[in-house]
Amino acid sequence: MKIVLAGASGFLGTALRSTLEADGHELRQLVRGTPQNGSQTQWDPYSGHLDPAVLADADAVVNLAGVPLVHVPATEAYKRKVVESRVATTSTLATAIAARGGAPALVNASGINYYGTDRGEEVLDEDSSAGTGFLADVCQRWEAATSPARDAGARVVMLRTAVVLDNSGGSFKLMVIPFRLGVGGRLGSGNQWFPTVSLADYVAAVSKAVTDATMSGPYNVTAQVPSTNAEFTKELGRQLHRPTLFTVPGFALTAAVGDLGEAMLGSLRVTPRRLLEAGFEFDDPTVADQVSAALA
User: Residue 5 and residue 218: Cα distance in Å, rounded?
Assistant: First the structure.
């Protein structure tokens, strides 16, 4: 397949790019800076500029673009960047796809915080109602920006992704530091459901969404067996052979990273119902599997 990839240089994009290329797909990377090779094309999503020729013979577009959620301090200016970097890129791609009559397919990133910050013990699947709060609003606006492509008849997949665990990047790379030092511990009470997924399963899920023409709409990309933050903490400590006696107070977490901290303290019992219905098989279904893969 010929695949256009936005966000190819990030933690997730780098892993996905390697897998797609290894599987024999032809990739075209969208970059905002000067192209470094023949497989890259410059674009400006904030002004809506994208060379239509890029999509002319593409089978699918994968959009993983967006500034990191973790940022210290969590200022209002940075929160605007979080929104704009996701909505602008998605809108530019969806509009370009619509202009071509609804082709190619669009596989777009989103997040599990579509469901809000704290839903307690409620089991959440793709049919569950949207939540409230800053991150929920980001995800809902992010997904709404795909509308031009969907309205034009394109196949659109929205990947509501949990925290992706891998030592090569993302939030896990930061989370594991205090554990290695022997001062790791649960976040708040630890009783909150803490959705995670291994990097290998994430990449496999995105790859399936790209290549499986029957998939469309929202999909929760989270591990098959949900776990709490306390269970995650205990397992990470066990595999690192470190104690997990400490607790990160809720007020300290929210003071450091704002809305993201509130989200990590909230409980989201998210299940990958539609992925399983699509025949997806997890390599790392449990928290023990995921931590082992992340530390490998």
Answer: 19
Edge-to-edge strands of the sheet including 217-221?
40-42, 26-31, 2-6, 60-63, 105-111, 156-161, 217-221
C-alpha to C-alpha distance for 282 and 35, rounded to whole angstroms = 36
Per-residue pLDDT of the chain (296 residues; tens, 9 = 90+): 999 999 999 999 999 999 999 999 999 999 999 998 989 999 999 999 999 999 999 999 999 999 988 777 778 999 999 999 999 999 999 999 999 998 999 999 999 999 999 999 999 999 999 999 999 999 999 999 999 999 999 999 999 999 999 999 988 998 899 999 999 999 999 999 999 999 999 999 999 999 999 999 999 999 999 999 999 999 999 999 999 988 877 666 676 566 667 777 899 999 999 999 999 999 999 999 999 999 99
Secondary structure letter of residue 114 according to DSSP? G
Could you give the CA distance from residue 270 to residue 120 in angstroms, rounded to a whole number?
Answer: 11
User: Does the CA dihedral 288-67-56-219 come out positive or negative?
Assistant: positive
Q: Which residue's structure tokens are 């992010």? A: 142
Contact 202, 220 (CB under 8 A): no
- 8 Å CB contact between 61 and 4: yes
Q: Alpha helix locations (H) across the chain? A: 11-22, 76-99, 134-144, 147-151, 170-180, 199-211, 229-240, 250-257, 259-265, 273-277, 287-295
Q: Are 197 and 222 spatial neighbours (Cβ–Cβ below 8 Å)?
A: yes
Give the pairing of strands 123-124 and 185-187. unpaired
Residue 35, both tokens: 């192209």
pTM for this predicted structure? 0.95
